[in-house]
Structures are given as structure tokens and as C-alpha cells.
Amino acid sequence: MLFYELAQASHDVAATGARLPKVARLASCLAQASAAEASIVVAYLSGELPQGAIGVGWAALRELPPPAEAPATLELLDVDAALSRLQAISGRGSHAARREELWRLFGISTELEQRFLSGLLGGKLRQGALEGVMIDAVAEAGGIPAAEVRRAAMLSGDLPTIAMAALTLGPAGLAQFRLAPLQPVKPMLAKTAENVAEALERVGRAGVEWKLDGARIQVHCVGAEVRVFTRNLADVSDRVPEIVEAIAALRAESLVLDGEAIALRADGRPQPFQVTMSRFGTKRVVDDLPPTTPLSAFYFDCLHADGEDLIDRPARERLSVLDDRLSPALVVPRFETDDVVAAQAFLEDALARGHEGVMVKDLDAPYEAGRRGAGWLKVKPAHTLDLVVLAAEWGHGRRHGKLSNLHLGARDPGSRGFVMLGKTFKGMTDEMLAWQTERLLALETRRDGHTVHVRPELVVEIAFDGVQTSPRYPGGVALRFARVKGYREDKSPAEADTIDTVRAIRARAG
User: How confident is residue 509, by pLDDT bands cut at 50, 70 and 90?
Assistant: First the structure.
């Protein structure tokens, strides 16, 4: 298979915003791949390298040889072999050797291939070929129901391997992928509801539980062996000995638990999110000393117990197994209800205890690993601030040619200027993107690379989940999960919220 065919497919996918044409174009490309090429095609078109990091960054891509003349002759497997050679280069003289190998590869690449390679190697290949789109493309190319590919992908977490099995072995190849203790699966994610009334209306009678603001963990236990994985499937068992010990003490035959790790104060209230993440991110814990900031683990689902997979079972049954295997002290508090008043009271109690909000879960729903399932709804109050746009960055993929990522500033009464709090590109409709691009370009003062700086005249209402300490920004604080609610053309910059208001929100959170 020619590498040019991938580059052209990537170009075509980036040029369309509609899902079905993306799927069809990717599927047509996958259908041309041989058994040896299938996993490479999926990896490349997903913006990944099968080799992982190969020691080539944007600095190495600044100066490259001119592109080769058409017609293209570079084979896909030759590109993969070249990248493997690049990864293997090390030691004295490696910089020059890597540059020589890189120039050789780019020197035989056409202009389109060079652009694709640069995006792939620089980690900035933005074409809208997200995992869900790629799963549908693999299914279409292999003539397999998308649900079967999706299930295998959620249990494996390795889409290129899944694609190779699907395209070469069909449904029988996908059947080999199942939940196995000590091999993590992608966690199920939640959708959002504005309030508990909406959540119960969508789900019906449900389990309502505290939503903890900690680090998502998946704990696997087989006899005395316990492994702890992050939401990204990284093994962090050696960083959290207290969690490992608590589960090892259960002496279960086998368990796979979904939960949250969180740092608590002496009174049981949660520490700020950053404290939990700082402790969770510590790469080395001294064996003979207890952690200075111990983590507590609370579990809200059970995916496997004593040799039996539970992910296809209703949540009610999984929770019954969870309650049977763990003591109440290890289980996230919850209750079952269809009463809005009772659910609201439970939410307010969770908030009073310092937690984020509640989760409302369909008790008849299976566990949809790796998906944002309709059976899980999160309800948490969002703060809003009126902030000023200080700059914006050009978008990628579907947002190419639009100013997308906004730099947000709070008013500083002392200097009469604005203090940057962070950036966001979330919450914007296509209409809003078009409008803000035109409006911001009219306010442009200068450009810095892909950033357009503007006069601070446009006020935007921003929803966010909290404020955290941040040395990255001059005000010492930053917004968490900021997203645009809408522009406030009725407000002037002088009416924007102040940095003092933002710091007060941070102080109240502890």
C-alpha cells in the first residue's frame, strides 16, 4: 500500500465535518490494507505511532528537504521501518544520525506525504478521525457490526490490534478480546444533567451517589496480587501502597473494581483536588515510611468477581456484588430513589461535605467501558464568571480558519488591566465560532505565531467547575473545566468579574 493513499485519506477526512463521509473515506482506505498493514493504517490515521515516542519533535521538523516529485512511490511499510530505525538510534552521534534518517524519509515523500508525516511526528494531526469514527470505519471495512468492534475495543484499549483482528479474522478474531483481571479496560464515562430533576426524568428510578473530586482508579486483584490503574490505563500500583494493602486484605479470588482515590482531611472532608493529584502523581513512595498525604479509595462499581465478568450485567446486580465483597467504608455512599426532593437533599448533603455533586445511574444499564453512556449522569453545580477575551488561537481540523481557543482574563481593579486565568475552546457552536472569528479579527492588535491578540473589549460568560492554584498564570489561579456559555454584549469590560472574586472562590473551596 502506498503511503500517499493514507496521506490523501487524512486530507479528505480533515476536509469534511460530517461523520458518515469520514467513516466511508476511512473504511475505503482500510479496505486496501493488507494484514501486515492494517494496524499501522489505523494507528497513523488516529494520529499515533505504533513505536510510541521516537525522539523526533517539532524542532527537527523545522528544516526539511524539498518534497519529491509525483508520482508517489513510498510504501507504507517502508515508512514504518524508517520510523523504527529512528527510534532505535541512540548514543554518541545520534542527533546527526537521526537527522540523516529523517531527511532520507522526507526526501522521498511528496508534498502531501510530507504534510501528513509532519503532523504525525509532531503530534498535531487533527483530522477528526476520533476513536468512535475509526471504530465505525473498521466495522464498515470488515463487514462487521460496529457494536462488536466497539465491545472488543473497550475491552482491549488497543484499536490498531482490534482492527487487525477484525480485518483479518472477522468476528472470530474479535471474540478473543474479553475482560481479564490484571488487564485494565477503559472506564465508563458520564454525561451531564443540569439538575437532579432532569437526571431522574431521563433515567427513571436510579442509584444516586456522591461524586468525588479525586483520581479515577481501576483496581484489579487476583489472590494476593493487586494492581491499580489510572483512567488512562497506566499502572500506578507502586505509588499507592495504602490502596493496594486495603484490597489485598480482602483475600478475594479475583476482583475488578471501579472507584476514586482521594486525599481526605482529618475531619473526613476532601482536600483540594490539586492535593490529591499531587500525591497521586508521586512516582516514588519510600517503602518503610507512610505517605505524607495518604489516599483513601472508594468504589462505585464491580466489573468482575471470582472468575465472572459482570460488565454486561445490570448495574443493580453489579452493585449487589460490590456491597457483598466490600465493607461500607470502601463504597461510595448511595441510595436508590425516583423522588426529586430526596435526590436534591442528597445532593445538598454531598456538597455540604465538600464533594463535587452526585452521580445519577440507571440501575438496569450495563457497564459501557470506554464510552460516555446515557446510563450515567453527573449533576454538579457550575460556577459562572463574566470574563474578557484577551486573545484567541486558530483552530484545527473542523475549526481550521476559525479563532477557537480563547484566552480569558479577569479584571484587576488595582492595575485597571486584566489577569489571564486560562484558555478554553469548549462550548462553542459553529455559529459562535464564525461570529467570534469575525469579531475578534476586528479587535486584533498583533499576532504571535498562531495566536491573535485583541483589544480587551469582548465579555464572555464562562461556566467552570472550580478554581485551582496555578503558577502558570500571573494571578496564581486558573479555572477548571472552563467552557463558554455565551457572549455578553450587554456588558462592558468594566463590568467583568475581578481577580479578587476568582481568588475568593478558590479560598472558599479550601
Answer: low
Please check whether residue 117 is in contact with residue 105, taking contact to mean a CB–CB distance below 8 angstroms. yes
Please pick, among 22, 186, 211, 423, the residue that the annotation labels catalytic.
211
Q: Which of 183, 195, 192 is nearest to 372 (CA)?
A: 192
- Measured in residues, the chain has a length of 510
Nearest Cα residue to 254 out of 289, 225, 293, 285: 225
What angle separates helix 111-122 from helix 94-107, to the nearest 10 degrees? 140
| CA distance to 212, 289, 301, 331, 413, per residue, from 334 (Å) | 12, 34, 12, 9, 45
Phi, psi of 72 (to 5 degrees): -70, 140
Contact between 490 and 386 under an 8 Å Cβ cutoff? The reply is no
Reduced to 3 DSSP states, what percent helix, strand and coil does the chain have, rounded to the nearest 5?
Answer: 40, 25, 35
Q: Cα torsion for 177, 182, 185, 188, to the nearest 10°?
A: 130
Whole-angstrom CA distances from 62 to 68, 198, 426 are 17, 51, 30
Cell digits for 467? 478554581
Say if pTM beats, i.e. exceeds, 0.85.
Answer: no
> Higher model confidence: residue 323 or residue 398?
323
Please write the tens of the pLDDT for every residue from 15-44: 887 889 989 999 999 988 888 898 899 888
The reported pLDDT for the residue numbered 510 is: 60
| pLDDT-derived band at 478, boundaries 50, 70, 90 | confident
Q: What DSSP element (H or E) covers 23?
A: helix 19-31
CA–CA gap between residue 49 and residue 62 (Å, rounded): 20
pLDDT > 60? residue 290: no
Residue at grid coordinates 485519506: 9
Report the half-sphere exposure of 253 (CA within 13 A, side-chain side): 5
Q: What percent of the chain has pLDDT over 70?
A: 95
Q: Of 137, 115, 77, 154, which Cα lies nearest the Cα of 311?
A: 154
Q: Which residues contact 106 (CB under 8 A, 6 or more apart)?
A: 64, 65, 67, 114, 117
Based on the residue annotation, tell me whether 211 is a catalytic residue of this protein.
Answer: yes
DSSP H/E element including 335: strand 334-337
Residue 333 buriedness (CB in 10 A; 0-12 / 13-18 / 19+): middle
* Predicted local distance difference test score (pLDDT) of residue 118: 87
